[in-house]
UniProtKB/TrEMBL annotation, chains A, B:
Keywords linked to the UniProt accession: Amino-acid biosynthesis, Methionine biosynthesis, NADP, Oxidoreductase, Threonine biosynthesis
InterPro entries referenced in this protein's UniProt entry, alphabetically: ACT-like_dom_sf, ACT_dom, Asp/hSer_DH_NAD-bd, HDH, HDH_cat, HDH_CS, NAD(P)-bd_dom_sf
Highest taxon in the source lineage: Bacteria
Pathway the protein takes part in: Amino-acid biosynthesis; L-methionine biosynthesis via de novo pathway; L-homoserine from L-aspartate: step 3/3; Amino-acid biosynthesis; L-threonine biosynthesis; L-threonine from L-aspartate: step 3/5
SUPFAM superfamilies named among the record's database cross-references: ACT-like, Glyceraldehyde-3-phosphate dehydrogenase-like, C-terminal domain, NAD(P)-binding Rossmann-fold domains
An example Gene Ontology molecular-function term: homoserine dehydrogenase activity
Record family assignment: Belongs to the homoserine dehydrogenase family.
Designated name of the protein: Homoserine dehydrogenase
Protein source organism: Rubrivivax gelatinosus
Record NCBIfam families: PRK06349.1 (NF004976)
Stored Pfam families: ACT, Homoserine_dh, NAD_binding_3
Xref: PANTHER family: HOMOSERINE DEHYDROGENASE (PTHR43331)
Length: 436, 436
């Protein structure tokens, strides 16, 4: 049988990786897919660079539309990124009846519903394993491996840059700014690291996982996003003393009144497996009512790990493209007609525990005052740690771990505590999850 | 559309779990599968017990053949276990054109090739996610999620009973026999625990993973199997001092001259994520050339975790049974015509590092003698730990960690060392893997 012909849009890091992996392992891949898979056309504005990668083995053009218009091409792989031209090209490829593979989490988190609907109408597949957690087959696990379950929550370290930074901050006791510079020098953080360190990239990914886990549309605009830029080494240290690690987690959880969808630094117990995921690695924990807790771990970025996911999607499409479109695996795990419009909860409605650090005057009655305010807001306390103040020092750190509470209540309590004359600096508050 | 009708053969722990999960989550499952899935018939020799579980919701019969012969039944789920009647029934169901779901690792590890061939000829699917690592979707990950990769090795904690025992031995400093009794009392080990503690169950599972990872037939008879019954608390303690944990691993690895397929207690570095998998939990690490290391963690046994895998298989079949049989996911990941007969290596050809504990006379020249023998066999030493002997004691423990070597060489060296008059007891040797 004639090989499946693939057209690549964009041949940067992941594109080159995809080309390399597909060539190196072509024999194994053919044995698995039952048919060869070949990249026969590549579009990139930098035609010279593209030629340097593919040599004579594929036709190189500058205009992506040439690839899409080519009737020989069965599958279009979009690796351009962003919401702009990528969206136009993906929709155009679908209109032309091409199956699409994309690693573009931003595009899917924002415009996924429109894209999947277009694909459904045209009877083609849009595969996106590479969009979340790189080479870890987490989309497949959620969408196919755990279909028996009512998913309760998903929590993941899904941004390698920030996990690398947090690991370094902890192991070396350094502050955020110092580690960021080092991460940039090592290539773990980009020159403009905003998308990573502000949590936006993680929010794109958890938005996609949320839709698949709960059968709701993708709705990035409803996600709560908080990055790691204001984290201080002191809090990482205190957390450790209390038996916790701080990780940037993407979390989505089903509640009675809606779905939580959020990204923020989070204290998690050190003995949890996911707390021990270090460096640029990714890991996702999924809690299902039948299976309990499962965890998926691996490289979340990089040329070949991401290519691993892109090529797996190509194999899936090759294996399944002759299937009756109504009986393929649905894009968002649930049949298109079965999506629900369960509301995404505002951050004020989210339920978590909290870590609080208050710089307080070292005088009698301060603790009573603060715990009184928490009690007034019905927030119960799990643990208190007060740093012994040094000889002659007039202030000290007071660390409080609370039990679960509604965020809105904590916000009100924080405002009251912050107004106390004995609270000497902005209160640090970090959410805490037991993940069990 | 009419629901998919499922017939259950055997309704013990996993069968009841499957019935419960399918009923409790039927609405979510229908939204995912695009069609209802119903257990309409159950066969169990204990008809009363079966009726107590299913009530009026399914027909209960004593004879499994009645289920298989029923033209209304689309999928037969085999949960009887063992090689005997289960094999006959699975083959009969296939002949009748039924798709089959099974959790029976023993059957597949031994007779898998015959069963998959029969299924291929008849154009039906045999799904077996529940056969390996319970609720963890590791078959799907290997067979579909990592298809881009040349798999290099797979190593897993795939028997919960033995991992529970090893965890308890380590944390409480107890010996094997004491912990086994406790595990039996808690229901973590069966009254006859032979299959678990002798490594046979793990060997069935790693045999299946090996076939899928490397595209070779299942061949349980070629697996090397060593259990945990002779493990001593002292070695767990020494391993810990050297920075290692001891786990019962199922390992399969591609070498230039063939495939390693083995189950045995193994030292692994404590900082590896898999070294921190405690209690009855399972985890599998897969090393692929593109993706690097990925890990899959969760519950490897129990009613609902195993049911999670059984029901996921039912959903897969429901989604895909209309697909062209030649374009379904192949049973063993590779197309039937593409399996290779790469030899399984004998244990003498396997390459690992070793932990050795020698009880030696505390006198001059002993270490020189022993290291001399290792050097003679070209086995190089990674670390040596000699316990300081107490006042007046005439013997001591000598611990040696070696670098990688061919097992046959180690066997020869061990025989020579054992013959030394200064070696006072049988030498303990445990294999060691870096898993990186």
């Amino acid at each position: 049988m004639k090989p499946i012909q693939v057209g690549l849009l964009g041949i940067g890091t992941v594109g080159s990786g995809t080309f390399t992996v597909l060539n190196r392992n072509q024999e194994e891949i053919r044995r698995r897919a039952g048919r060869g898979i070949e990249i026969t056309m590549v579009a990139d504005l930098d035609v010279e660079r593209a030629r340097a990668v593919v040599g004579e083995r594929a036709r190189v053009v500058a205009d992506a539309r040439e690839v899409i218009a080519n009737p020989e091409i069965d599958i279009v792989v979009e690796l351009i990124g962003g919401y702009g031209i990528a969206k136009t090209l993906v929709l155009e490829a679908i209109r032309q009846g091409k199956h699409v593979v994309t690693a573009n989490k931003a595009l899917l988190a924002v415009h996924g519903s429109e894209i999947f609907e277009a694909a459904r109408e045209r009877g083609v597949m849009v595969a996106f394993e590479a969009a979340v957690a790189g080479g870890i087959p987490i989309i497949k696990a959620l969408r196919e491996g755990l279909t028996a379950n009512r998913i309760e929550w998903v929590a993941g370290i899904i941004n390698g840059t920030t996990n690398f930074i947090l690991s370094e901050m902890r192991s070396k006791g350094l502050d955020f700014a110092a580690v960021l510079k080092q991460a940039q020098a090592l290539g773990y953080a980009e020159a403009d690291p905003t998308f990573d360190i502000e949590g936006i990239d993680a929010a794109h990914k958890v938005t996609i996982m949320s839709a698949i886990a709960f059968g709701v549309p993708v709705q990035f605009d409803k996600a709560y996003v908080e990055g790691i830029t204001t984290l201080q080494a002191a809090d990482i240290r205190y957390a450790e003393q209390l038996g916790y690690r701080i990780k940037l987690l993407g979390i989505t959880r089903r509640r009675e009144n809606g779905i939580e969808l959020r990204v923020h630094p989070t204290l998690i117990p050190s003995q949890r497996l996911i707390a021990n995921v270090e460096g640029a690695m990714n890991a996702v924990v999924v809690q299902g009512d039948a299976v309990g807790s499962t965890l998926y771990y691996g490289k979340g970025a990089g040329a070949e790990p991401t290519a691993s996911a892109v090529v797996a999607d190509l194999v899936d499409i090759t294996r399944l493209h002759t299937a009756d479109p109504d009986h393929r695996v649905p894009h968002l795990a649930f049949q298109p007609g079965s999506l629900q419009d369960t509301p995404i909860l505002s951050i004020d409605e989210v339920i978590t525990a909290f870590y609080l650090r208050l710089q307080v005057a070292d005088q009698a009655g301060v603790l009573a005052k603060i715990t009184g305010i928490l009690a007034e807001h019905e927030i119960s306390i799990d643990a208190v740690l007060q740093r012994e103040s040094a000889e002659g020092e007039k202030q000290t750190d007071l660390i409080i771990l609370t039990h679960d509470t509604v965020e809105g209540r904590m916000r009100a309590a924080l405002a009251q505590m912050q107004a106390l004359p004995t609270v000497l600096a902005p209160i640090v508050r970090i959410r805490k999850e037991e993940l069990k």
